[in-house]
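Good day; I would like, with your permission, to put a structural problem before you. What I wish to show you is a protein chain and, alongside it, a tokenised description of its three-dimensional fold. I would ask you to consider whether the tokens describe a fold that such a sequence might reasonably adopt. You will find the record immediately after this paragraph:
***
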Amino acid sequence: GGAFTYNRTNNTDVTPFCPSQTIGTTCVVPNILTYAQSVFPGANIPSTTPGPVTSQIIGPAPTASNFTGGDGLNTLGYRFLRGSNQERNQYSTRVDVDFDDRNTLTGIYNYNKEVNLRPDVDTSNFGTTPDVIQFSDNRQFTMAYRRVFSNNFINDFRGGIFTSVVPFDRTDALPDFILQSGLVTSPMTFLDQGRNTKAFNFQSNADWVLGDHTFRFGGQTQIFRVNAYNDAAILPVVNLLTGTNSTFASLPGGVNTTQLGTANSLLGLLGGLYNTVNQSFNQASIDEGFVRGATALTPFRYENHSVYIADRWSAAKGLTLNLGVRYELFPAMRLNNGLALEPKFADNDNVIPDLLNPNGTYVPIGANAGRKNAYYKTDYNNFAPNLGVAWAPSFEGGPLGWLFGENKTVVRAGYSHIYGNDSIVTSINNAAVGNAGLGRTALALSASNSRLSSGNPPTVGVPANPTFPRSYLVNNGPGIGNFLGTVFAIDPKLQTPKVEQYSFGIQRELFGGMAMEIRYVGSRSTNLGRGIDLGQLDIVNNGVLADFLRAQANMRASNPTNPNLGNPFCATAGCVPLTVFQNGGLPSPGRIVVGGNNGFSSAVFTSVLQNGNPADLVFGPNGNNGIVNQTSTALPTLNNINNQACIGSANTTGGVYTCNPNATPYVSFVPNRGSGVLDLFLNDGRYRYDSLQTEIRKRFSAGLYFQVNYTYSKNLTNAVGTSQQLFEPYLDNNNQALDYQRADFDTTHVFNFNGIYQLPFGQGKKFLNYGGIADKFLGGWEISGLGQWQSGAPITFVDTRGTLNRTGRSARQTPVSNLSNQQIQDLVGVFQASTTNATTGVVTDRLFWINPSILNTNLQAAAGFSLLGTTFANQAFFNVNPGQTGNIGRGLINGPKYFNINMALLKSIRFTETMRVQLRMEAFNVLNNVNFVQNTQFANINATNFGQITTAFGPRELQFAARFEW
């Protein structure tokens, strides 16, 4: 929050306020809102009082403030404590009824409710209790009936329901409209949202023993109902900003830009000035049209049905076979109210031509699937076989007897399929809700310099009911696609992802009650769900890249000593004319205008040339101010970058477009001139996991038990699946192999140990075998512990600039290096180095996970981009040149390893057979080993904290506990 502080005087001189202010005190100035002061001699401005509406915002602002925030002149900071209460209640009960030895009934009921105040959501008001509350009400009821039909046939039937209600509720009264100012964050704009979920599960499982066969068969049905809702922006939002005729001018000798912005914001706030009113509208149904105040509802419906049969067959002595098959059916997910759009496909077997068609259209979901409200067709071909074999060879003598022993070795192998639809709701919803048309923001422009004191803001008109089919172009204009719209599509023949699992292992009994096992375990899939972008930007075939390089060469030729200040349009010796980029003037086919009234920003163009990222020309280096999303909505039409020859606005009441889908772009950047991004969710993800696993176990005997295992593995994938949306576009659609990499969660080495040892002292033990008081002190001691050592997660070196594809698709682009993979891996370790700040001279000791000798004085791994091209001694990584990508692989090294041992010392004192006291001392990280936290998996070579270690896991902790059992 922020408090307002003004010093009030009776003359034209503004005196300092709180001149002796010290840290920890506050400055209180009364009557701050009746102050008026003229900065021009002779100008008399009467004192005024803000209107009642404006006072709703500034009235709650406290008069006490401090210097922890604000600009130190007109606004100051305010710090106070707010409630963040959490209340949790949980209840559980279980009832078991044995009617007789053949019939058993079980009932289980669980209930838990959690209530949280959310100061992180309500960040606006100055009250100590937030006006947003979030709770979770969860209930589970399960019943099971078990029937023993005979001594070789048993059936278990169970069913249950789980419900979860998770609302985020606004607790204060809803206003008629919401005020929004650039200076303060009050009042709160948050409106109710949440979800309620119901899950039903019914299953029946039978066991039938018939001779050497043990059959298991049954089925399961799961039904899911997810209802999400959101009231965001359904109330009018009045923007308390200043119009073009009500702002202070930036005159020579005046305040700086920041202070001028504050002054203009104060003028808009205190004067109650506004220039726009926004309101979002939603449809209650596909036929009803937009309704004022209607909640956005997304009622998802999906199920899972399965039946199975399996046979455990004792085929011969020491040989057991497991054979079975499971059929899985995942009916296509539906949106119960049908309020979503999809591209219309003429051929469900080949949807790409329709996505690339500039005359493409949207229709309500269900048209492609042939089922009302369905996102895709149901996949019926989901048979999951299961095959396993266990062989226990028995040899009494000879080499095989020595190797396998007599009934001491088991050889196991297995193969199976698994079907699953993880993240189905979030991924499908992400691939569908982006097609605008059934929910939108309507914009009403008020007269410039309108004031709230003049009356209520104008009512925003309800948008016209959309008609279908709806063209891509309509979703590609101002306020929706901003001249580079997005088409979201789902493959109508989307399959349920299938995972294959396979293993082979040998288990051998050893001496002393120990057994050792070594096994290979692997899995793979070739049809995981993922979203890709077919609308990759093209900077090669349109001549943009070649002209971009010419422009860079001109900057070098025109200013050899400092190319960053060169002129891309120079005409001096050594310069060449540009054939695509044009310095001012009017647009024409094949040309892109830079600067002037008809071109995009010269500053952005120069910045992109300096940074060497031509693929960011379209969106801009930071996702804005590119060719297609300039502030002026006329610019893309004039330049005709992708085909936005449309007149009109969708953001007015009944707004419509007049569009020409056959217009030819002056310079074509995208494959569909009627849109921009072409997101397609399909079965394009794959992965492969291979591992070697070893394990030694000792069963509990003589007071000792332990288990130790080690895994060496690798997981390769082109779809890491770490986001809920599963949207993972390729860096380059023409070279998809670039995205086949180690998974973000791949762990090469894992070693685990756990064990218990009861010390051999006390009554009944090998040593000090005494009873009575002596046993109370000497006996009952036990030591336990667990240890873990594992290698770190993969780290990828990145240069995320838009050199080949735009920045939004280059998050995993690797840089260039002249070192081999092994040489790069040899740079990794833990290093300490002292660095000196060139400005302050302060010396700082830092830790690095990579040899700091490869860094420059700014602690970066690279310096300068393609235009300046600076290098330094020992440089190992280099920024990618325009139009190219890196030459090293992803996930090339591992982050810091993790090693930890936890131990416990336990003393049990028994008083009777049913009563004892247990004392425990537990040590976490008993060796006090320093484990560094891996603070990133993507090491940007241009970052000034490249390779630095900044945090570590906790040191050793001791914990003492006492427990009484009876």
